[in-house]
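FW: tagging you since you asked about this chain on Friday. Here's the raw sequence from the shared folder, copied in full. Didn't touch anything.
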Amino acid sequence: MLLQLDAEALYADMRAGVRALLRPATVLVGIWSGGAWLAERLQRDLGLAGSHGVISSTLHRDDFSARGLAAASGATQLPFAIDDSHILLVDDVLYTGRTVRAVVNELFDYGRPASVTLAVLVDRGGRELPLAAAYSAARIALPASSRLALTRADDGSFSFTVRDND
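HL: got it, structure written out here
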């Protein structure tokens, strides 16, 4: 199967979609790793003050015993107060919803936000939990045996790789 997704074009759509979701005092938090890359670039391209946050799902995953700490090299970094903040959670691919569930649990370890909104580059369906993104630049269908991953080149440009989980 050959899937052609233009990650840069989808990013441009996402930038416009995220702009519409912003309200005063919104902070961006990217899910490690693809979401963190997107949040970093959105922070800069939208001219937002301050810094974006990065959040890891590692410690709250329901498959932690199988994956362990080695599965994630990124640690949570939230350079702002979580209490009463409007969090715009950013990720590259939404699939089962388990990563988002884990990240929301991690987020609440740091405080109680006023709201949490999810924006993703690609929603590939296949949800196992009742979660939905407020914004997704694309919706696609892939077999469960496939993995869609965002990659970032040295110049900061984005692309996708698709591979089978076999």
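FW: The chain is about 25% helix and 30% strand.
HL: agreed, and Strands lie at 26-31, 53-55, 86-94, 115-123, 135-139, 146-152, 158-164.
FW: great, closing this out.
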